[in-house]
Amino acid sequence: MEKKTVLTGITTTGTPHIGNYLGAIKPAIDLSHGDTYNNFYFLADYHALIKCHDPERVAQSTREIAATWLALGLDTDRATFYRQTDVPEITELTWILTCMCSKGLMNRAHAYKASVDANRDAGNADLDDGVTMGLFSYPILMAADILMFNADLIPVGKDQIQHIEMARDVAGRFNHTYRPLFTQPEAVVDEQTQLIPGLDGRKMSKSYNNTIPLFSSADELYKLIKQIKTDTRTPGEPKDPDNSTIFQLYSCFANEQERLAMRQQFENGIGWGDAKKELFEFLDSKLSAPRVLYNELMNDLGSVEEVLLKGAEKARGVAAPMMEQVRIAAGIRPLTYVAEAKPEEKQKKEKSADAIARAEEGRRRGILMQLKPLLAQVEAADDKASVAQTIVAEKIAEVEGLKKKAKQKAQNELDILQEELATYL
Ligand code: TRP
Known about the structure:
This protein has helices spanning 18-33, 45-51, 55-71, 89-98, 103-107, 110-121, 133-136, 138-147, 161-177, 218-226, 245-253, 256-267, 272-298, 301-330, 343-380, 384-401, 404-420; strands spanning 4-11, 37-44, 80-83, 153-155, 186-188.
């Protein structure tokens, strides 16, 4: 069976945090270590331009996210790891898909609707205030990311499910209008990884400003962990691990045994300060080795750039021929382009060539029947050659004296006579 393709991208607008790591990067890297899937992972820097117009931030985030994937052990020989903007075919496909996408579908996109709602709530007469065309049609760019590589499975957060549905919709429209070139992708949402809490207990997210950067220094990490919200229970009082951000973050990195031991400590009344210290030491022990590697990579960006360019080459190896097919399907072709027969058409042609041969054979047999007496004369004669030559000469004279249709008939007879009697002529 052919391997399925897993594809996902991360928008390059922020510094990777523990939520990104547990929710997206770690599961993607784990998947790439098996041999079950083809993996395409990329830095969605075209997407970054939709929401961030600070060039330094986009550039820095791109460095950080690239170095993060590599520091965490992504095997770039197995997975195709690239920067979206290094694959120009993606924007090319975006346009063709834009022409396959109804505006109404985009009107329903959550991100766009949220902006419209915010304008309405603020009493703004222009409901589209602050909405760029990039934001409006962002799901089409995302569809191009996915459809370009015929990806089957797209690991994403819940907020992205709608975009995958839209990619399916656009793929369907293209396939129906032109040719079935695109695979229908499926969103894969891991409920478990949706629950990573941030410093304030809400889901860890850039937009809540409650994140713990994955590779902050040990000091910073401890400082942030000390900010985690706790209740007023004093040391010695039993605490509820299931309602504690400290315990939940600990659990995300822990094995079963470690989790049970920490649970026990909560029930035994560990003080919040001590719990935070334990969490810090535990996270630091898990993150210190990749942090060293991360810092090395951030000091050797040339090597990271090289890895990305190699990945782009691999990605374009797939994207360019795909784009070629897409263009041709849509009618964007060299002037001299002649369609190659589709397999079923070829079959039809082959059949008709066969049929022509059979018909030709039948026609020949019919003429031969009529010529039988003449051929018999030759066979019976002593001087076969002279009889044959006389017969053919008479036929030639006959052909010359006839007109059109009759002439053609006689000519056919002559051809066959000449073939049959070739040895005597
Ligand atoms: N829009 C996604 C996000 O903000 C990132 C993204 C861009 C993506 N293109 C993609 C994710 C294609 C999966 C597949 O999280």
